[in-house]
């Protein structure tokens, strides 16, 4: 586990937001350490957004950024623009999103109006596949940290773990689950990115079965610097336009059948004897 306090630009100026919004790095030294970024690889990604203790105001224009009461929607707008810059579109499908997810984390981390206040990674490896233990460990990592319905996250992971064990394939499976939250905590507006990387190795000799697993739970917490948004409201409105966390929630939800059953829907295969 590693906790960290990063430093933002002391006084971000409109130029810094222009650089960021156009896909370039803001001025000043890079913020270090950045959150853990997953390595790009072939695999699946499922995304589920949550909100807690905040509500949409429907604000538009400059007031979206100039009035702190509207900042939950402003944060949703910023996260959505970060995804556009990274070509990260979970709502469009499950495949080929892992590389873009890493770019998305980097864009969120470099937004001049956010401050990375917490960053941690926990991991576990096993020589035998025990999905029940894995689910318990992941649930323990999430509970008490996000106030949303953690069981929906767990259902998604459980569906995936059970379905890939039934897949007919010779390759190992790597999957990422990401949960993003916008919450109010002690008067501060924060955006949290969770992601769980799961790697299951397939036994290639004899009967096809998954023989080992490893998983890592990553959490990064960003504080919204409300005063910075207010001071740069006109420029942010010009660069980012209107938005809300309702738009963000829609764009960041992976396509599903019923609840989070997407892995059952898309990946279940007959068990091989």
Automatic annotation (TrEMBL):
Protein name in the entry = Uncharacterized protein
Q: Which organism is it from?
A: Entomortierella parvispora
């Amino acid at each position: 586990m590693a906790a960290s306090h990063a430093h933002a630009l002391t006084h971000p100026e409109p130029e810094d937001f222009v650089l960021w919004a156009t896909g370039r790095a803001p001025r000043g030294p890079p913020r270090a350490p950045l959150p853990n970024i997953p390595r790009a690889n072939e695999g699946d990604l499922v995304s589920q957004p949550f909100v807690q203790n905040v509500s949409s105001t429907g604000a538009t224009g400059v007031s979206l950024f100039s009035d702190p009461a509207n900042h939950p929607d402003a944060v949703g707008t910023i996260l959505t623009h970060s995804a556009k810059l990274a070509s990260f579109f979970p709502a469009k499908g499950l495949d080929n999103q892992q590389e873009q997810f890493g770019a998305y984390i980097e864009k969120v981390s470099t937004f001049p109006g956010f401050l990375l206040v917490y960053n941690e990674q926990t991991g576990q490896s096993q020589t035998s596949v025990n999905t029940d233990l894995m689910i318990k460990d992941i649930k323990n990592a999430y509970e008490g940290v996000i106030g949303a319905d953690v069981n929906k996250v767990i259902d998604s992971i459980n569906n995936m773990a059970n379905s890939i064990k039934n897949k007919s394939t010779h390759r190992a499976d790597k999957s990422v689950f990401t949960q993003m939250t916008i919450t109010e905590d002690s008067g501060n507006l924060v955006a949290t990115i969770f992601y769980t990387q799961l790697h299951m190795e397939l036994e290639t000799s004899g009967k096809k079965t998954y023989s080992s697993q490893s998983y890592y739970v990553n959490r990064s917490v960003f504080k919204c610097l409300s005063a910075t948004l207010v001071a740069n409201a006109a420029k942010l409105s010009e660069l980012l336009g209107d938005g809300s966390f309702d738009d963000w929630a829609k764009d960041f939800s992976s396509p599903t059948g019923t609840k989070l059953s997407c892995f059952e829907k898309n990946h279940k295969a007959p068990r091989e004897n």
